[in-house]
């Protein structure tokens, strides 16, 4: 190691080397994170360089390039893990089902994600619905009645009952409403 050169001198002579490696590997570095990684690699290479092992420039290039590759691999792994976790969470929440319309596709909440035997969840749900909407939930979901049967029982039309169901489904598909239902927070 050349003890006469300070790291500041080494940095001034080799900072372009870091930029060159970043450019050569086509890395987008708007926040200078990869440059910082290269700078740390340059520091480590400066500290561990042994002149009898080869030229300093070759060693610096090797260390900087490999450190940048390691950083890219870590970020790629992190992005993959994050993407898989988000996909799994979405799939668990929606059961993979989507409703497609002119506005785009919207995830449909899986009905079985609501705990059917927990009365506290039903009470929270009831507090968020109108009487007609709750009637639809109670008759259609809990008692497994058809829209026609509900309409006869409530002395209304089948279309009105279907509308109550659409309103309930809209509330259940809203992510904020589902959080309220699943965690028991009654503020919507």
From TrEMBL:
Pfam families: Sigma70_r2 (PF04542), UPF0122 (PF04297). Residues 11-77 form the RNA polymerase sigma-70 region domain. One of its GO terms (biological process) is DNA-templated transcription initiation. It comes from the Bacteria. InterPro entries: RNA_pol_sigma-70_dom, RNA_pol_sigma70_r2, RNA_pol_sigma_r2, RNA_pol_sigma_r3/r4-like, UPF0122, WH-like_DNA-bd_sf. GO terms for molecular function: DNA-binding transcription factor activity. Might take part in the signal recognition particle (SRP) pathway. This is inferred from the conservation of its genetic proximity to ftsY/ffh. May be a regulatory protein. Belongs to the UPF0122 family. This is RNA polymerase sigma-70 region 2 domain-containing protein. It comes from Lentibacillus kapialis.
């Amino acid at each position: 190691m050349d003890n006469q050169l300070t790291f500041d001198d080494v940095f001034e002579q080799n900072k372009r080397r870091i930029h060159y490696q970043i450019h050569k590997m086509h890395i987008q570095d708007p926040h200078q994170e990869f440059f910082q990684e290269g700078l740390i690699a340059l520091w480590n290479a400066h500290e561990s360089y042994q002149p009898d092992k080869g030229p300093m420039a070759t060693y610096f290039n090797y260390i900087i390039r490999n450190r940048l590759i390691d950083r890219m691999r870590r970020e790629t792994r992190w992005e993959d893990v994050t993407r898989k976790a988000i996909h799994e969470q979405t799939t668990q929440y929606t059961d993979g089902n989507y409703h497609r319309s002119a506005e785009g596709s919207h995830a449909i909440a899986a009905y079985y994600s609501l705990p059917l035997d927990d009365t506290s969840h039903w009470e929270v749900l009831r507090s968020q619905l109108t009487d007609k909407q709750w009637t639809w939930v109670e008759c259609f979901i809990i008692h497994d009645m058809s829209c026609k049967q509900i309409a006869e029982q409530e002395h209304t039309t089948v279309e009105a009952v279907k509308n109550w169901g659409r309103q309930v489904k809209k509330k259940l598909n809203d992510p904020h409403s589902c959080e309220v239902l699943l965690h028991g927070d009654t503020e919507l």
